[in-house]
Amino acid sequence: MGCLLWTLLVGTLVVGGPQGAGTRQPPKVLVRVIRAAFSPDNTRLLTAVWRGKKALSLWDVQSGKELLRFGEHGQMVGFVNFTPDGKQVLAGSRDGVLRTYALPGGELVRTLRMYKYICSDGYLSRNGTRLLTLGLDQRVGLDRRFLRLWDLPTGRLVWEAAGITNDAIAFSPDSSLALIGPLAPSVPRGHISLWEMDAKRSRQVLKNEEHWHTFPVAFAPDSRTVLLAKKERKADGQTHFLLWDAKTEAVIKTLQASGYLLSAGFTPDGKQVVGVEEGQTRLRFWDVVSGRPVKTVGLGRDGEFREVLVVLSADRTLAMTASGYLQEGREGYQQIPGESLAARKAAVEIRIGIWDLTKGKLAREWADRSVH
Predict the structure, then answer these.
(1) Total tally of structural domains belonging to the chain
(2) Does residue 33 lie in a domain region?
(3) What mean pLDDT is predicted for residues 230-247?
């Protein structure tokens, strides 16, 4: 079970205000929480930093206390999750290896080589038995990526598909379907394919138009309704979010929005979409029947510089937000001559918030000021 993660843009925290003529471009500081997952019982939270020794942290959701820091990853962590019994943690890295750690101690108990070079993404089924991954077996050739479906209990490769050029994936909760499309708007005339997992086949269901870019975001709990993002290919172009039926292959509803959805998913009853729009500082809820925004929840004070990672629990009752903030008392970012890298990183804290989606409010929040 674990958690379902929809995230399309995370990783850099830009510190400093808008740049005027003659001003110096400020440095960028990495927002280190790049992946996260809730435990099956929603009592613990697993977060992953960029890479390095002890790249994973285990938190108590109720108190915000860090219970464990563990794991060593030489390359960026691509995805994390819990096993259905909550006794182990899965972490896939861009070195192509899936690592399994035992809890509560964090001991490495198993490794599985999924790709020879890079595993960029992983999507776990609701019952925790299937893992859908996307990756490369060599350094060159993005048109030679492999989509692979794994049986996790045995570590067996169920099937694979070569020549995958798209990189935005939505995996249905029942693991029967996957929708794959181009994430980058620069991809000309790309298309979206619907993959049937058991039949091991795919078909093109949507084709990007010349002036519009469309990609999949998330499946609803019914494993049939899909949230799509559609953006006009021009500066300040319009953005729409579409609810699409995977069975009839028809658009059900258009949601009113103003920017890309960075992260999104559905509430437990499937009646609302919750997500963060690009450039926004709030969690927004849309009604799937009317297509209109029905509620917004602020994520922090305006003017703080951050990008937000949003992760939903498997039962869609909780959401985690991980945001980068300048610490209080630091006006903008000014690089001090001779200042160490550790001191510069220490000027930023990571704030983790736990949201009750049934009530639409922040339940608790804590800060991770450790230097990664």
Answers:
(1) 1
(2) yes
(3) 80
